[in-house]
């Protein structure tokens, strides 16, 4: 029996052990759950999603960042999700923990269960032990910055991910810092693209 993933203290810790999932992942996973009419359809959806990632994606990283769109599922439009709010889910495979960071606390806590169900299937397919139970924590509002507008959720998501990847306190910024963070992201992206020219 395969006993991976290894415990966190057996691996190098830090930014190199973080994997950021595409923004499409949770949307497709949610559609798989909400539109699947039978277990075999959900399994088919899981298998399709598993092909998106190289082997070891879910087991070889200390933390996996999942952007989450909390929009309305339009079942009459081929399962598209229409929404405007983003939050961040973080999977910690070594401790079997799923954490949800939402500066507005609008994201349903049941979304963590959707990810947990997928992870149980992934662990079973990989032959890993200990994947049956995943702890879940909706990070309380007093431990994360509070978003007070309706347009900055993407910036909050990026800033929270940056704090976590740098082992900084997530509460190290607030709504009043968003304009400065937005400009810093713009500068960073411009420098990246200019360097490639």
From TrEMBL:
Keyword Glycoprotein appears in the UniProt entry: no
GO cellular component terms, semicolon-separated: nucleus
One Pfam family linked to the record: Peptidase_C48
Record keyword Hydrolase present: yes
GO biological process assignments: protein desumoylation; proteolysis
Domain of life (superkingdom): Eukaryota
Residue ranges of domain Ubiquitin-like protease family profile in the record: 1-164
PROSITE patterns listed in its UniProt record: ULP_PROTEASE (PS50600)
InterPro entries: Papain-like_cys_pep_sf, Peptidase_C48_C
Keywords recorded for this protein, A-Z: Hydrolase, Protease, Thiol protease
Example GO molecular function: deSUMOylase activity
Family in the record: Belongs to the peptidase C48 family.
Protein name, UniProt field: Ubiquitin-like protease family profile domain-containing protein
């Amino acid at each position: 029996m395969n006993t991976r993933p290894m415990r966190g203290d057996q691996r190098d810790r830090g930014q190199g052990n973080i994997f950021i999932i595409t923004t499409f992942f949770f949307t497709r996973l949610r559609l798989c759950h909400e539109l699947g009419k039978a277990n075999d359809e959900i399994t088919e959806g899981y298998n399709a999603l598993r092909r998106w990632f190289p082997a070891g994606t879910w087991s070889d990283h200390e933390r996996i960042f999942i952007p989450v769109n909390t929009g309305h599922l339009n079942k009459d439009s081929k399962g598209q999700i229409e929404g405007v709010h983003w939050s961040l889910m973080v999977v910690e495979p070594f401790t079997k923990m799923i954490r949800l960071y939402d500066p507005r606390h609008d994201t349903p806590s049941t979304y963590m269960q959707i990810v947990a169900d997928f992870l149980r299937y992934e662990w079973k397919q990989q032959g890993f032990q200990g994947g049956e139970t995943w702890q879940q924590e909706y990070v309380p509002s007093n431990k994360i910055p509070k978003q007070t507008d309706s347009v900055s959720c993407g910036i909050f998501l990026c800033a929270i991910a940056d704090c976590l990847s740098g082992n900084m306190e997530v509460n190290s910024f607030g709504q009043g810092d968003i304009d400065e963070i937005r400009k810093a992201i713009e500068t960073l992206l411009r420098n990246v693209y200019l360097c490639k020219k």
